[in-house]
């Protein structure tokens, strides 16, 4: 079997083609990350007029601060809940749409629309729905004896941001799950059906194992989403309250750095957050990927 190779007329042409992406990565990713690491070892006044080297003092103070340790716990709960809910519901919706024949395209288009909504708009939408004075959902919950008020109850506020962030991510997960299911050979399902396997057994023994690469990819993407891309949802709904109940790591970086003007501590928090995400990704590739069937 002959394989075709692309031959560039000039040795410098491949580097020229990837140069724009490399430049963008250096300017908008590598350089800011390096500045954050540098700033985490310094104490700087809010106007940048005076800077002094303080070593690891910002990191030591953070891990001695009960508020920061509590924020780590809240972030873990938030990340786990959003990942499980968004991926679980997306998988259920993908299974349902994949069984349709005529209207699958229409349902797919409708289910993809929420992904086009910005995080801020998604947060405001659910803030109105859960508004304790005018929202329809607190009114419905009152029939079950639930006195909803996310402005005073920290648990209610956490539920609100979990629901809003999950709803925003379901469409993304649904798209990949549906594409993965449609790539499963129909002959495998037909053979299992002939052998007497029901729909539920065919899904868990044939379809779901073949979806493991997609599931593994979405697991990494969703954890990164909860760590970084949920700032807009929180800022539009609870602003970290009440009483810091929804002040997860990514929002605490903002409140301490931009509002509190503690640039050194904020930089240290961003570095720690980055290390957490890198560690989670390494762990997933090291241990979870072993169960993936390519």
Automatic annotation (TrEMBL):
It is a multi-pass membrane protein. Gene3D superfamilies: MetI-like. The chain crosses the membrane at residues 12-34, 76-98, 110-130, 157-181, 202-221, 268-288. GO terms for cellular component: plasma membrane. Keywords: Cell inner membrane, Cell membrane, Membrane, Transmembrane, Transmembrane helix, Transport. Residues 72-284 form the ABC transmembrane type-1 domain. PROSITE patterns: ABC_TM1 (PS50928). Its main location: membrane. It is found in: Cell inner membrane; Cell membrane. InterPro entries: MetI-like (IPR000515), MetI-like_sf (IPR035906), UgpAE/MalFG_permease (IPR050809). GO terms for biological process: transmembrane transport. Pfam families: BPD_transp_1. Part of the ABC transporter complex UgpBAEC involved in sn-glycerol-3-phosphate (G3P) import. Probably responsible for the translocation of the substrate across the membrane. Belongs to the binding-protein-dependent transport system permease family. The complex is composed of two ATP-binding proteins (UgpC), two transmembrane proteins (UgpA and UgpE) and a solute-binding protein (UgpB). This is sn-glycerol-3-phosphate transport system permease protein UgpA. It comes from Devosia sediminis. The gene is ugpA.
